[in-house]
Amino acid sequence: MKVVIVTSSISCLPHDRVRRYGIKVVPVPFMLNGHSYLDGVDISATEVYEQLAYEYPFRTSAPSPGDYLKAYQEVLKEHNAILCLTVPSKISMMYDSACSAAKQMASDAIIRVLDTGTAAGGQALIDMAAAEAASSGAALEEITQLIANLKDKVRLYGLIVASRYLARTGRVPSPLPSAASALSIKPVFTISQGKIKLVGLVSTEKSGVDRMLSLMHADVAENPVRVIVQHANAPQQAENLRQRVEAEFNCIELRVTEFSPIIGFATGPGCLALAFCAED
Which listed residue, 20, 35, 152, 220, has the most CB atoms within 10 A of its CB? Predict the structure, then answer.
């Protein structure tokens, strides 16, 4: 039984992995300056950032149950089973939409929906590990157990450089963004157990990067590690971070990707993130 991984564009998966493993990516819809787009389909993250999207009206929404239903139907034309992976249900409606769509499929359709507990590069690491296992012939139960194990190992740390943009999502109490912006404080955050958590406040971008790397050292030690460095319209800063990670850690895999504009809108320009998973 061939299992196909379904995920969303918010994972920012490397295109070569999507093609290699046949991952089905459901694009996230958004509105930019009065125009409707599908993330990664109608417009790239780079193009959004070049339009200075932060200064224009920008609204996002989760893919609808109909979007997931269409994806499921396309996959099941050629394959037997689906494992749909989503961002945390506590921060998005994607999990609910994916579950709703699964209930609309025929009773004999094999579809499982899992909340990964993480997002962006963290979810990308889980997506790719699940897809690699599926391509090797792993059964649905085996892949589900793999993800359960990975959820305890995958880490995601991020640095917010432009704090004033945080309040727009409604997920961060408004006093924090305004106070952080006024005091030039830069939050360092993580996504753990499905929740966004503050793990530090720093005064400079350098100290924020140092803080993320310090946390990574504590989590990884000398173990081999897979890493994704991500950024929101900050390619040079991301490259600098990549070089430090390469020099300081035993990297099995090390990639740099852009944040989906869905995340970039929430974090503001200049945001950097480290997603990683240590090998045993």
Answer: 220
